[in-house]
From TrEMBL:
Species annotation: Anabaena azotica FACHB-119
InterPro entries membership: Put_sensory_transdc_reg_YbjN
Protein name, entry field: YbjN domain-containing protein
Domain of life: Bacteria
Annotated Pfam families: YbjN
């Protein structure tokens, strides 16, 4: 039987919420409903979020966007000036709940909108009930983004009596191939050939586990397969490391900024790079520093203005309030010259510094400086109290 897919335009805001999390408001664009005969087999939602909201989604791995199950960014980093579009698929176990209240894509779209207003804590509106397939951003010079394992293996392919072995094998191979294609430092053929062997082992383990209990719930099967993909991603990273020479921390961060097309200069033959960043609220210098012996990477955003002598106590209060609750990084103030900076850092002794780790530290850093820069300026130039400046930003 053929599967038919119908689309419905939403162009409206939806509020998603977990009881333990603050509400998440997204701009829903389209909803796609796939049916076989009269049974709903898939529900996909495409929506847009601001770069700031995506930072939260990325940090908390909402929509099951775990770093381990993503392909590398295809066209460079995300920009802070453009919305990011996400396509997600509803958890297969929740399709019966949707089917009770909707038969068509238009009805499904209307039902989600109704839930958003009346029952935002409903499971259908939980950010953990949706699996991100693709994340992308349109830019002036094209598009950048990444896919996840769920773009290759659909929950609809999985049944309580097992999974099509060919679909799982093809999905694992395609995911590994796209991953390897982004690692320019190693031969794709070498990486994939080693990965296929490892994938086969993972595949056999998953199939054995599923066959032991054919009544296992679909969600449990999904979780086992997700674990296999995560292990595969880790193995891919290890394989890539094995076929490439070990690089110093400084070499790794230099390579990262080259791949991201960031212009930089090295400071006086030291393991420090100077870069410029343009945010929504200003432009400032950044410094990437490698401490080879300690195996540490430190990244700084330097505020474009220094705090005058008579404003340093107020600025100190502002950054103390800002630092309270910060998850990644912190603001610093040099009382000698009034320099204000934001610092993120990581120690990788006994481990490795990956592009994913560098990316997380760098973009979390510049996002925070851009978000709090107006408050810093209002305290220095606008005679706004630190408490009011923080309230304007964090409310």
């Amino acid at each position: 039987m053929s599967i038919q897919t119908k689309y419905s335009d939403l162009n409206t805001e939806l509020t998603l919420c977990e009881s333990s999390e603050s509400p998440l408001t997204i701009r829903a664009v389209t909803l796609a409903l796939s049916k076989q005969v009269h049974k709903i087999t898939e529900c996909r939602l495409s929506f847009q979020v601001s770069p700031e909201l995506y930072q939260r989604i990325d940090t908390e791995a909402l929509f099951n966007l775990k770093p381990e199950i993503r392909t590398p960014l295809s066209g460079g980093s995300f920009q802070l000036s453009r919305d990011i579009q996400i396509e997600a698929i509803l958890d297969f176990d929740l399709l019966p709940q949707l089917a009770k209240n909707a038969k068509t894509s238009n009805q499904a779209a209307a039902y989600l909108q109704k839930l958003s207003k009346e029952q935002p804590n409903h499971p259908l509106l939980s950010p953990y009930s949706w699996y991100g397939l693709q994340v992308k951003q349109q830019q002036e010079k094209g598009e950048t983004g990444y896919s996840t394992v769920w773009a290759y293996l659909k929950p609809a392919d999985i049944r309580q009596d097992g999974i099509d072995s060919k679909k799982l094998n093809d999905a694992m191979f395609d995911f590994a191939k796209e991953w390897a294609n982004h690692h320019q430092s190693a031969s794709n053929e070498d990486v994939i050939s080693q990965t296929v062997e490892m994938m086969t082992q993972n595949f056999e383990e998953v199939m054995n586990n599923v066959s032991e209990n054919t009544e296992k719930l679909v969600s449990e099967t999904l979780e086992e397969i997700l674990t296999a993909f995560e292990e595969m991603a880790e193995s891919l990273a290890e394989i890539t490391d094995e076929v490439t020479s070990e690089a110093s921390v400084f070499a790794q961060i230099s390579q990262f900024f080259q791949q991201e097309d960031w212009q930089y200069e090295q400071i006086s033959q030291k393991s420090i790079l100077r870069l410029a960043f343009q945010g929504r609220n200003g432009k400032w210098d950044c410094f990437a520093k490698a401490r080879e012996e300690q195996q540490q990477f430190i990244f700084y955003s330097i505020c474009p203005v220094n705090a005058p002598q008579d404003k340093r106590l107020a600025v100190a209060e502002f950054i103390t309030r800002a630092n309270c609750g910060m998850m990644i990084g912190n603001f610093e103030l040099d009382f000698n010259d009034g320099e204000i900076s934001y610092k993120t850092s990581i120690d990788v002794e006994g481990d490795r510094l990956s592009n994913a780790l560098i990316q997380r530290l760098v973009y979390a850093n510049v996002t925070m400086m851009d978000e709090y820069l107006p408050g810093i300026l209002s305290v220095i130039y606008g005679n706004v109290s630190p408490e009011d400046a923080i309230a304007q930003i964090e409310t």
